[in-house]
Design goal:
InterPro entries: NAD(P)-bd_dom_sf, SDR_fam. Pfam families: adh_short_C2. GO terms for molecular function: oxidoreductase activity. This is Putative short chain type dehydrogenase. Belongs to the short-chain dehydrogenases/reductases (SDR) family. The chain is of the alpha/beta class. The protein has one domain: Rossmann fold. 36% of the residues lie in helices and 18% in strands. The protein contains six helices and nine strands; from the N terminus they run βαβββαβαβαβαββα. The protein has a nine-stranded mixed β-sheet, sandwiched between helices. The longest helix is centred in the middle third of the chain and has 26 residues, at 96-121. The chain is globular. It starts with a strand and ends with a helix.
Length: 245
């Protein structure tokens, strides 16, 4: 039987590199896809795939390259995002073009990746653990000011994951939306820890059955359930109170 394979799409030097290291150390062959990579097998056996996630039509080629060089990935991580912002007090100043630009990377390419991952999962033996993991954040739970273009794909991607977990999770094809938090529940944002993601994704990848699709976790304690809060600790309820609603 061939060694298991993990594909990390949108692999960078923090989360992507840590995930690759964790899974490689545990016997996985690794494929990394990103715009900054030079395509080809590396001396350590890792496959690099050059890919521009701003074009969703490029995503099937990523999976084809992995299939041809390594085999069918049983764990797929989607780590792509395009963080575009607006003034905090003027979210509708974002142009439609800006929304589409962020959506292409954060949602459309992720949706195609989920489709392609599922196709491969169905070809694998039932004994092989399968999972699609989307690197998310708190924006699916609360409207943090100033990031509307970035938030919309996250909200929609969370819905894609929920649909996937509901429809396919009981069949063994698992789907997760992962959101790192600080110990006090606040969003991790730019302090996101690669090793914490790697450990959490390893745990999710080895689950025998679909657990809750929304995965909030901290570096210190791992998986914990949190509500949506912004960087000041505001919730939807506190926003209602602030604006007299």
């Amino acid at each position: 039987m061939q060694a298991p394979i993990i594909l990390v799409i949108g692999a960078g030097p923090n989360i992507g590199a840590a995930i690759a290291k964790k899974f490689s150390e545990n016997g996985y062959r690794v494929a990394l896809a990103a715009r900054s990579l030079s395509a080809g097998l590396q001396p350590n056996g890792t496959l690099h795939v050059k890919a521009d996630l701003s074009s969703p039509k490029s995503v099937p080629q990523i999976f084809l390259s992995v299939r041809e060089n390594l085999g069918i990935p049983n764990i797929v991580v989607y780590n792509g995002a395009h963080r575009l912002t607006t003034p905090e007090d003027d979210p509708f100043s974002a142009s439609l073009e800006t929304l589409i630009e962020s959506r292409n990377v954060g949602l459309d390419s992720a949706y195609v990746a989920a489709q392609e991952a599922l196709k491969g999962f169905k070809e694998l033996p039932d004994s092989v653990p399968t999972a699609f993991i989307y690197t998310g954040n708190a924006l699916n739970q609360i409207a943090i000011p100033g990031v509307l273009p970035f938030a919309l794909p996250k909200v929609s991607a969370a819905m894609v994951i929920e649909y996937g977990a509901n429809a396919y999770g009981h069949k063994g094809y698992r789907f997760y939306y992962a959101d790192q938090r600080e110990a006090d529940c606040l969003p991790a944002s730019l302090a996101r820890d690669g090793e914490a993601h790697a450990n959490m994704y390893w745990e999710l990848g080895q689950e025998e059955k679909q657990s809750k699709w929304l995965v909030t976790f901290t570096k210190e304690k791992g998986r914990e359930e949190f509500l949506g809060v912004d960087f000041e600790g505001n919730t939807r309820a506190s926003y209602d109170e602030e604006f007299g609603r």
